[in-house]
Amino acid sequence: MLADALRGRGRQGWLGLSPTATHRTLRGRALIAGVVATCLLSGAGCSSVTTASAITAPPATDRFTAYVGPGNPSGLTAVQSVLGNRATLASDYFDDRSWSGIDNDKWDLRRWAGSGYRMVWGVPLLPATRGVSLAVGATGAYDKHFVLLAKRLVAANMGNAILRLGWEFNQKSYPWYAAGQPKSFVAYWQHVVSAMRSVHGSHFEFMWNPDRGDNGAGDIAMGNFANYYPGSGYVDIVGLDVYDSAWKSYPGAPAEFDSVVAQQWGLNWLAQFGTSEQKPVAIPELGLGLGPSAPGSGPVVGSGAVGGGDDPVFISDMVNWSTTHGAVEVGFWDEGPSGMFDGRYPNTFAAVKSALASSTAGSPPTPG
Questions:
Q1: What's the CA gap between 309 and 292, in Å, rounded?
Q2: I need a surface site. Which of 58, 80, 316, 358 has the fewest CB within 10 A?
């Protein structure tokens, strides 16, 4: 449930919303109204990216796509039509309720097979079942599940998929929460990547993707995010999820954006880390916030989650930052309270549409 995903955070944190966890819990086999827009390198069969400077960006409008609930390619096409955007990728998530949901999600694979989109899959590192752990995964005991997943993807003509392994591994709501286990997390990640690469016909790209900011006790327990980095030989893209949310005190959209840029594990960190590892950066989830908000995205205080509401200023600043820093993925989250494209937040919708219309082709600069 959504309430189970909320965590108290420091002012600079984004409050710990885990929308993908909520999505998986509630989805069953019904389509959930929601959009995660994700933009990445377009085209089939892309090889692994080794340096940020080696990337040639597709037209900016190609970099944005929409996720409209599980297994819903027609919904993606409809959203792109409304936005006036041309998507080449689609984003979805495998089910973490069992190993079979991770390594053999037949329903989702059937829905997307033949859609023409290049897939961006959220891949759980562990199922939400008892008796599993990162430490056991680090021994290679779970490799067989990821070999099977790779075979299923290749058979579905998705051997070029982008895989967000264990996304938001600094969030307590996920079974693969890694705080205090950097060695196990890294070793397990390396096992998974090696196992999937061993399958003939695989050309996957792997994205390493924490959640942003100082998220209170959880991130204090995490320590230095860099300790959880599996190494450049096992990662193709580094990402950071960003939401327009704070805890108890929201200073207004411009100040909140400045905070997101400067805070520990914020956008400056992402850009610097991408440069140091010679990897392109991404914002795989970008969304609005929860809780009370002020008209015009002004300051607001509350007893828990607060945000900017219908906030074109924050979203526009994020899009501009992403363009300036050569992000190869920008993802708009439109599920639940962050419904940017379902009519609830018309100003944000207009800002996104305007940004897409004014975007131009070009090669992104080296992040920094």
A1: 8
A2: 358
